[in-house]
Amino acid sequence: MLTRYITRNFGTAAKKRIGFIGLGNMGSPMVQNLIKHGHELTVFDIVEEKMIKAEQEGAKAAPDVAE
After folding, report:
1. What is the pTM of this model?
2. Fewer Cβ atoms within 10 A, N terminus or C terminus of the chain?
3. Would you say 19 and 62 are in contact if contact means Cβ atoms under 8 Å apart?
4. How many CA atoms lie within 13 A of 23 on its CB side?
């Protein structure tokens, strides 16, 4: 059921702009997967190194949560 939800909402046919807060143990792999499928991500984490890594993978780092 979860696979069907992900495919329907995040599949390759419908590219999305996604804001993502938190790049920890779960967030980083989720961001990588979404980028791999062509989605445009803006990310934020209080640990700057994690945002730098996400930028290197193709995400855009936000300067604060509100962005």
Report:
1. 0.74
2. N
3. yes
4. 28
In a domain, 27, yes or no: yes
Task: Evaluate whether residue 66 is within a structural domain.
Answer: no
Q: Which residues have a Cβ under 8 Å from the Cβ of 36 and sit 6 or more positions away?
A: none
Q: How many domains does the chain divide into?
A: 1
Selected residue with higher pLDDT from 67 and 12: 67
Per-residue pLDDT reduced to its tens digit, 27-54: 999 999 999 999 999 999 999 999 999 9
Both tokens of 23, joined, read 């790049």
Whether residue 16 contacts residue 37, with contact meaning beta carbons closer than 8 Å, is answered with: no
| Kind plus residue range of the DSSP H or E element containing 63 | none
In a domain, 50, yes or no: yes
Domain carrying residue 42: 2-61
